What we know:
The chain is an alpha/beta fold.
Amino acid sequence: MRRLKILRSAFRVMEESWDAISGVLEIQSTSMDAAIPATSFKVRIIVGSVVRSDAISSSDYTAESVFDDHNKWRLESTKNWDAVVAARILNATLVVPKLDQRSFWKDSSNFSEIFDVDWFISFLSKDVKIIKQLPTKGSRKALSAYNMRVPRKCNERCYINRILPVLLKKHAVQLSKFDYRLANRLDTEYQKLRCRVNYHALRFTNPILAMGEKLVHRMRMRSKHYIALHLRFEPDMLAFSGCDYGGGEKEQKELGAIRRRWKTLHKSNPDRARRQGRCPLTPEEVGLMLRALGYGSDIHIYVASGEVYGGKRTLAPLRALFPNFHSKETIATKEELEPFSSFSSRMAALDFIVCDESDVFVTNNNGNMAKILAGRRRYFGHKPTIRPNAKKLYRLFLNRSNSTWEAFASSVRTFQKGFMGEPKEVRPGRGGFHENPSTCICEDSAAAKVDKNSQSRKYRKDNTTKKNVANDEPDVGNVSEWPDMDDDDDDDQNDLAEKGTFNETISDYDALNFEDPELEEIISD
């Protein structure tokens, strides 16, 4: 009843305050499982077993998402698909996402310079109405969006109860800081929409695609098969982790100085961080893990990384183990990279393409890019994705000098079972949806076979037949102060992993609620 009163009141406010609203209201009956057309706004109110639909035109109000997409690796993060899903839940028109150009990474790129915005709008036209900019109020000035933040892990009910009344009153809202602002578990129709957005609607621009495919081709010319390694070993990342990487007093002094910038961080405990698996593997440890898994020194490796702490000295052991060591800077000319080199997001997009097209993708961390690529590679055919079981491996690396190579390699292979990107490695519903999009993956193994005739299937040509992603169908003045939602559906991954319920890597920062904007920007990969 309270929700009905809120909506009735909101409709009255809207009708009385904004004479620019036009259009005929249509009441359309719908079932719980029916697709909701983007041309109609339907607030579905569940009272017992009765579903009521109150419809107004979706063009009458707008949700604008400002993505502070400062992290250079966060190109296809949950924010893109979650903004679309949020608009679908609210049945609002979505303004093309904006990227924060004032953040730590100082990248002036906008959404349309990274993604094909026309394809994005067209592909999702049956799901959500998307526009490039805020409309005007008839002949008057353009609408101004009301800025607000969404609680973390906000589910459908949360959006209806908390965001919708504000949207109806203000007519346009700007949802900022959109990391993890949508619950992990949603109704099936919304989960499938997440897949349509992330795996089909988001497509890089032609210049990025062309250069990315050129890099892939050059790797294939060097070797028929190659491994791509996403290596996060930047000073800021290491300082945040609070781990000891064997650099002695010099390392402690340098990383400690960086760590002191963030007053919200607790005093570091390197031993505990290692035991909990929260330390990114060093380049040498990654190389040893790969050799233990059976990859020989003749394998070609493409390394996608930012600034590596220690530079060439840190990378030397990995190069010694795998001499065929490549990066975009080594296989492309300076002139070829010039259009991208001043923009960290565009350079990251090139790495993303090469990593995604690799025969084996490896990461030394459990950040966003690792999870997103793991989910993407599951969706497109379970291509091998190796994520380190750091919680188990740390003891092996610690005591490596006390064991034979055979014993070390055997233990690595044992501990990495369940961390190799194989089918059904993680039970449906476990882990984050962006790393395990089980709702969209057909259980029929025959239907899940990779289309080997389309190497660029994920970028140039959309192939919606490969997966089951069909169209299934308060006090508003202080909304930014709402506490984050406690999502009971999200599993305690640490406890489950301890019990052996499933093999799941944990993020270095899953449990943290960042108060320092710069810290969140640097670590949210």
